[in-house]
Write a structure and sequence with these properties.
- The chain is α/β, with parallel strands linked by helices.
- It folds into two domains: about 1-60; about 65-215, P-loop containing nucleotide triphosphate hydrolases (Rossmann fold), CATH 3.40.50.
- It is built from ten helices and four strands.
- It has a four-stranded parallel beta sheet with strand order 1-4-3-2.
- The longest helix is centred in the first third of the chain and has 28 residues, at about 30-60.
- The radius of gyration is 22 Å and the shape is elongated.
Length: about 220
């Protein structure tokens, strides 16, 4: 049993065989029902491991869940709206989400929490600070790897872009970020957390035409 389950890569089958066999005996399950219980346990644990791997690969800086969010300290945020967003329908449709508010209002917590929910639901997610992404794009362009880098970000189903608006971008950085966003437009979802309203994004994207295109 041990060698066979290792060969077939069935760790839950191996670890829980005795427990489930004992339960099947007490409940007088048929052989078919017993085998079904074992296989369901393996499938459930495998999906949990996949979900944990997707959350890890998203690159979140710290664990944050929607269940931990303190709505009493952020009374302007509607729990029903967040619960709807947690269903990830907008991610499946490739829609965009902007979380806008002052520092300390929970934007990053919600961004990470929604990203975590999407990863657990089976979506490929990537979290990155806006400034870090721009620096990565500049380096990629200098090394003639820009197309590959943009394509890599284009493949994830949800891009979580945090702290947009905390620093002014030069023309080159703004144009590179624009390329990432246009690569995803109407195909894959983007969630942005910003401390500035759309009208204030001109401080980040100093080219008015480029700023208008990004907001659109």
């Amino acid at each position: 049993m041990d060698s066979a389950t290792r060969l077939l890569r069935l760790p839950t089958f191996r670890d829980r065989y005795g427990e489930i066999a004992d339960a099947a005996g007490r409940e007088q399950l048929s052989y078919r029902a017993f085998l079904s219980e074992l296989l369901l346990a393996e499938c459930d644990d495998r999906e949990e491991r996949r979900a944990a791997r997707r959350v890890h690969e998203a690159g979140f800086p710290r664990p944050k869940t929607l269940a931990d969010f303190n709505y009493s300290a952020n009374t302007t945020i509607n729990p029903a709206t967040i619960n709807t967003l947690a269903g990830c329908g907008w991610v499946s449709k490739g829609q965009s989400l902007c979380l806008i508010g002052d520092s300390g209002t929970g934007k990053s917590h919600l961004l990470i929490g929604l990203g975590t929910a999407a990863a657990q639901a089976g979506h490929r997610v990537r979290y990155v600070l806006a400034a870090k992404l721009v620096n990565e794009l500049v380096e990629a362009e200098d090394e003639r790897q820009l197309s590959r880098t943009i394509a890599r970000y284009g493949r994830v189903e949800l891009l979580c872009l945090d702290e947009l608006g905390y620093m002014e971008l030069d023309k080159r950085g703004a144009e590179l970020l624009f390329q990432v966003l246009t690569e995803r437009e109407e195909k894959t979802a983007v969630a942005i957390a910003s401390n500035d309203s759309f009208s204030g994004w001109t401080k980040t994207f100093t080219d008015p035409r480029l700023c208008a295109a990004i907001v659109d």
